[in-house]
Design goal:
globular, single chain, alpha+beta, about 350 residues
Length: about 350
């Protein structure tokens, strides 16, 4: 006997995963996580018994519900499902998956569409951030067709504009959790910043690496990867995150100067290098690049006020709008694209969860 759960599979930015209504999942967190593991096929390197893609970028879940908060349309909870371990982590955030939340919410009937464009106010439960998503809705219908493109995703699609607010200290309680713009960890200067995503920023050359290396070159350097993970685990308690051995935050980022961009970055997820750039991670990097005294500011190209921050990553360049005033990040914006890939039900073994009779079936 299997349990049928309504599900929509979407590409969100440069990530992919199922989108669920919160009401269709178990209320108990442990049972919900067991359902997500079964849905994705974890733990298994290929996730062969689920719909995961055997990669951290394709083993992500979005859980959406109508918000009770005044002025907010929907709540969004992101879950990172570990590929090789029976672990579901809701401590991080994902701005790429967030790009699909607005279209999903509209097509699920949670938000009424307007002709032309529809603004969806989203509260990200993971980080506490408030995000306005502007979705293209000609004729009052979501469209995924358009001419916008982002590095790391093929072809063109309709743009989704994301503007992030309330992004400082969502997980760690402060923009700079240690109170410093630089800290020394194991003899290495790092910037520990929580801006949409808690990250540990380090100059690549401080570790004998370059921020323009390919993902394969970085991942093949076992000594470098071990050193980065050791620094990340030391950074966790300093950022008030505690023991982060089983968490994907903070995310480590290698930084360096770039030709044709504000800064070059290689963003780790954290045990592999992102093939492009996470939207939330990009915000943290951009904010640090604009704040004097950080390791990012040391290598970033100076930009005139109001000029977008551009980040060179393995698949191209990400452009971010940013407003920084008196050392505070007021908002950040980024353009993403998304596409609805599949809709229907996912089948979960009954031994994992059997839907109570009181819950409406699909």
């Amino acid at each position: 006997m299997q349990t049928r759960i309504p599900c929509v599979l979407m590409r969100g930015g440069t990530s992919r995963g199922p989108y669920f209504l919160k009401s269709d999942l178990p209320a108990d967190v442990a049972t919900r996580d067991a359902v997500l593991l079964a849905a994705m096929g974890s733990p298994h390197p290929l996730q062969i018994d689920g719909i995961g893609g055997g990669n951290t970028l394709t083993s992500k879940v979005a859980i959406v519900s109508r918000s009770a908060e005044p002025g907010v349309d929907v709540d969004y909870l992101f879950a990172q499902v570990d590929v090789g371990r029976a672990l579901v982590d809701t401590r991080p955030n994902c701005g790429n998956m967030l790009s699909g939340v607005g279209p999903f919410a509209i097509e699920a009937g949670l938000v009424a569409a307007r002709d032309g464009e529809t603004s969806v106010m989203i509260r990200n439960i993971n980080a506490g951030a408030l995000v306005e998503a502007v979705v293209q809705t000609p004729g009052g219908q979501v469209t995924y067709e358009g001419h916008a493109s982002i590095p790391g995703a093929p072809g063109t699609s309709a743009p989704v504009s994301l503007r992030f607010r309330d992004i400082s200290g969502g997980k760690c309680g402060a923009l700079f959790p240690t109170g410093h713009r630089q800290d020394i960890v194991d003899g290495i200067a790092v910037t520990l910043i929580d801006c949409a995503m808690p990250v540990m920023l380090v100059r690549a050359d401080a570790l004998g690496a370059t921020a323009t290396a390919t993902t394969a070159e970085i991942e093949a350097d076992a000594g470098l990867m071990t050193r980065i993970e050791a620094l990340r685990r030391r950074a966790g308690p300093l950022m008030t995150l505690g023991d982060v051995a089983d968490s994907v935050i903070p995310k480590p980022v290698l930084l360096g100067p770039a030709e044709g961009a504000t800064i070059a970055a290689r963003y780790l997820t954290p045990h592999a290098v992102h093939q492009a750039m996470a939207a939330t991670g990009g915000i943290a990097i951009a904010a640090a690049a604009r704040l004097a005294g950080t390791v990012a500011a040391e290598v970033a190209r100076p930009e005139a006020p109001g000029v977008a921050v551009t980040i060179a990553h393995p698949s191209g360049i990400m452009e971010l709008g940013l407003s920084v005033r008196d050392g505070c990040v007021e908002w950040a914006s980024v353009l993403r694209t998304t596409r609805r890939l599949f809709e229907g039900v996912i089948l979960i073994p009954g031994r994992v969860w059997t839907r109570p009779a009181t819950m409406a079936a699909d």
